[in-house]
């Protein structure tokens, strides 16, 4: 399979040609040099394997930015398996939060459907009537305590990102991660030496962002910007 055209490489990886070109533009894979004497660019089995890695990581929820971090770890001979595990645990926690939200949405829809007569004029449609009411989802369709508690629980978690200065190697990243994991309310931590940042899943009711910044600063590193809330 060495010396494949882009179309053959796409077929071998199970993607479209445009997907390969997109990955090349994003810098996730390197575009082979074009032969001086003409002809097609040659893609080898290593590129095909990398494309499969990217696609499978996307399928289990990793973003392209997170995949860049994973690829950087894979290319670093000093990287430790615990760093990959930490990234996977952080992603799992985000997925669990989304599942909680989706379950609450499902129950709200179930109540809407159960209350609908299923026939008659649109003017008597309870679903349209409920959705048109002010604050309908909260006040009229998910009012019972169990659903409300589940939504509150789902929305309590959020992910923040710190840009960090002073990390000189993967060992520094591991130090920052270990320190952040000791803080109350921290549910998951992913620290990237390549991207010079930390992504932290927290419970804002118990975690204090100022305490997280102080923890990093006391270890000799510096947070360059205020935390950015990525998911509520």
Descriptive tags:
Alpha-Beta Plaits, alpha+beta, 5-stranded antiparallel beta sheet, 10 helices, 55% helix, 3 domains, Multidrug-efflux Transporter Regulator, Chain: A, Domain 2, 232 residues, 5 strands
Describe the fold and architecture.
It is a single chain. The chain is α+β, with helices and mostly antiparallel strands. It folds into three domains: 6-59, Multidrug-efflux Transporter Regulator, Chain: A, Domain 2, CATH 1.10.1660; 84-154; 157-231, Alpha-Beta Plaits. 55% of the residues lie in helices and 12% in strands. The protein has ten helices and five strands. The chain has helices at residues 6-13, 17-26, 45-59, 64-75, 81-115, 126-132, 136-141, 145-156, 170-181, 209-218, and strands spanning 158-165, 186-192, 197-202, 222-223, 228-231. Strands 1, 2, 3, 4 and 5 form a five-stranded antiparallel beta sheet that branches. Helix 1 packs across helix 3 and helix 5 runs antiparallel to helix 8 (145-156). The longest helix has 35 residues, at 81-115. The radius of gyration is 24 Å and the shape is flat. It starts with 5 loop residues before the first helix and ends with a strand. Mean pLDDT is 80; it is low at 136-155.
Which outline best applies? Answer: flat
Number of DSSP helical runs: 10
How much helix, percentage-wise, in residues? 40-55%
On the 0 to 100 scale, the average pLDDT is: 80
The run of helices and strands is HHHHHHHHEHEEHEE
Number of folding domains?
3
What structural category characterises the helix and strand content? alpha+beta
Could you give the distance between the termini?
Answer: 46 Å
CATH class of the largest domain: Alpha Beta
Which CATH architecture of the largest domain is right?
2-Layer Sandwich
Q: Percent of residues in beta strands?
A: 5-15%
Oligomer: single chain
The tally of beta strands, per DSSP, is 5
Major sheet: size, sense and barrel closure?
Answer: 5 strands, antiparallel
User: The CATH topology of the largest domain is what?
Assistant: Alpha-Beta Plaits
Radius of gyration: 24 Å
Uncertain parts:
136-155
């Amino acid at each position: 399979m060495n010396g494949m055209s882009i179309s053959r490489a796409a077929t071998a990886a199970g993607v479209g040609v445009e997907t390969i070109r997109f990955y090349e533009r994003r810098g996730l894979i390197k575009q082979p040099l074009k032969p001086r004497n003409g002809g097609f660019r040659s893609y080898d089995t290593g590129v095909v394997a990398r494309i499969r890695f990217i696609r499978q990581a996307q399928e289990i929820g990793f973003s392209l930015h997170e995949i860049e971090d994973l690829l950087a770890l894979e290319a670093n001979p000093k990287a430790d398996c615990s760093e990959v595990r930490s990234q996977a645990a952080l992603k799992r926690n985000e997925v669990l939060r989304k599942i909680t939200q989706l379950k609450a949405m499902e129950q709200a829809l179930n109540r809407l459907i159960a209350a609908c007569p299923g026939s008659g004029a649109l003017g008597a449609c309870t679903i349209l009537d409920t959705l048109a009411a002010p604050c309908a989802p909260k006040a009229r369709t998910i009012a019972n305590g169990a659903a409300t508690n589940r939504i509150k629980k789902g929305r309590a978690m959020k992910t923040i990102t710190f840009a960090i200065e002073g990390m000189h190697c993967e060992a520094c990243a591991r130090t920052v991660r270990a320190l952040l994991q000791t803080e109350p309310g921290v549910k998951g931590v992913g620290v990237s030496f390549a991207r010079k940042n930390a992504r932290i899943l927290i419970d804002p009711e118990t975690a204090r962002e100022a305490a997280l910044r102080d923890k990093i600063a006391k270890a000799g590193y510096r947070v360059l910007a205020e935390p950015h809330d990525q998911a509520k």
